[in-house]
Design brief:
This protein is mainly β. Helix content is about 5%, strand content about 45%. The chain has three helices and 25 strands. It has helices at about 1-20, 20-25, 105-110, and strands at about 30, 35-45, 50-55, 60-65, 70-75, 80, 95-100, 110-120, 125-135, 140-150, 160-165, 175, 195-200, 220-225, 230-235, 240-245, 250-255, 290-295, 300-305, 320, 325-335, 335-345, 350-355, 360-365, 370-375. It is globular and about 50 Å long. The termini are far apart.
């Protein structure tokens, strides 16, 4: 009888340990391969979280890929669903995507978000919308939702939307537009797939964009020849950095210069998934080569250029999440050069990275049950 009771207690303990609620409460230390140590504290688990952005009051907006936007109170770790999110085309890599605040959010309350949209013919494409966010309510909501950009054209399939967002220091909206696993459109002037897009905050096209003689659509392009860009950030000098997934290996971290061509699918440090080699970057010097590339893949997602005071030695460093590598990667940037200097084994696919208002680094794990983790110096 005592044996049976012990087995029951053991079964209950194992059940609790496998429960997302219990797992979400676990705190731990994470060691980097260059000697740094991070203290990780969980603030809850989500259903396929994809992106997050901090509000001025310190709370958080988190997107879930199936189409839910959540307002997260970090004091009591409660969540409230935000109403007014448009219907999204969920499936594959598609769904609700990135979310950021307008630089003057405290005056205009505008948020910008991306998602996948399906047309009447079953074809899909990325969309960027802006809306007024009303948080001070028992039912927070988005109002006056306005689509300001659509990926052109919509195509079959559900991969490589990219649709990451960032505002430049001068208030321009940058959008990463993946090549939707179609490859050749990344070099096309009549499709905006495989490009970085630069717009005014209202969706209009800046007159000083670099490609003024390649057609009307090309006037929206900042750069071309990209694959699947899941990270975008500006550094302290106002320079744009992006990263993108390679095919079979060959992920890239790029200083992304207006008017430049980054070579996909003509060159890559990776190869086609089915084994066919792709010429390396050094065979075609007219294309902009990455500052860092990875073989084997890290599968990067999410990006910050750190400028906080909590880790003063890391100011100016880039941090990106690794999906396939289940890691947090630290990159040192010096001038126009960059190199990976440390990797933290997270044990889970990392979908998103953000810097918190007090300088902590926050990450979202991927997939169902993905946790929100705050990373601080070792306690």
């Amino acid at each position: 009888m005592q044996f049976l009771r012990s087995v029951s207690y053991l079964s209950l303990l194992l059940l609790l340990l496998s429960c997302p609620i219990y797992a979400a409460s676990a705190d731990t230390t994470i060691n980097g391969n260059a000697g740094s140590t991070l203290f990780a504290q969980s603030f809850g688990a989500f259903n396929e979280p994809w992106a997050m952005t901090f509000l001025p009051d310190g709370n958080l907006l988190v997107t879930e890929k199936p189409g839910t936007l959540l307002l997260v109170d970090l004091d009591d770790r409660s969540t409230i669903t935000v109403e007014g999110v448009p219907e999204v085309a969920y499936g594959g890599q598609g769904g609700l995507g990135d979310i950021i605040l307008h630089p003057q959010y405290e005056e205009n309350h505008w948020v910008y978000f991306s998602y996948a949209e399906e047309d009447a013919y079953g074809k899909r494409g990325a969309v960027v919308a802006r809306a007024t966010f009303r948080p001070a309510s028992a039912k927070p909501k988005l109002e006056n939702v306005e689509v300001i950009w659509r990926q052109t054209p919509k195509v079959s399939g559900s991969g490589h939307y990219s649709h990451r967002l960032a505002f430049s220091p001068d208030g321009k909206l940058f959008i990463t537009s993946g090549e939707r696993q179609k490859q050749k459109p990344a070099q096309s002037w009549t499709q905006d797939l495989g490009k970085v897009i630069r717009l005014n905050a209202d969706g209009s096209v800046p007159a000083d964009n670099p490609f003024q003689d390649k057609g009307e659509l090309a006037k929206t392009f900042w750069s071309l020849g990209h694959r699947n860009l899941l990270g975008i950030a500006f550094d302290g000098q106002g320079r744009l950095w992006t990263h993108e997934m390679g095919p079979r290996h060959g992920d890239e971290f790029n200083l992304t210069v207006g008017g430049d061509n980054y070579g996909w699918p003509i060159v890559s440090w990776g190869d086609q998934y089915y084994g066919v080699p792709i010429p390396d970057h050094d065979t075609r010097p007219e294309f902009n080569a990455p500052e860092v590339y990875w073989v084997p893949t890290v599968a990067p997602s999410g990006l910050i250029i750190y400028n906080g005071s909590l880790f003063p030695a890391w100011q100016g460093n880039a941090f990106l999440g690794g999906l396939r590598s289940e890691s947090l990667v630290r990159i040192k940037i010096e001038g126009d050069q960059a190199e990976e200097v440390e990797r933290f084994a997270m044990g889970k696919r990392i979908r998103e990275v953000e810097q918190g208002p007090k300088g902590a680094i926050w990450v979202l794990e991927d997939k169902k049950g993905g946790r929100l983790l705050r990373l601080t110096p070792q306690e």
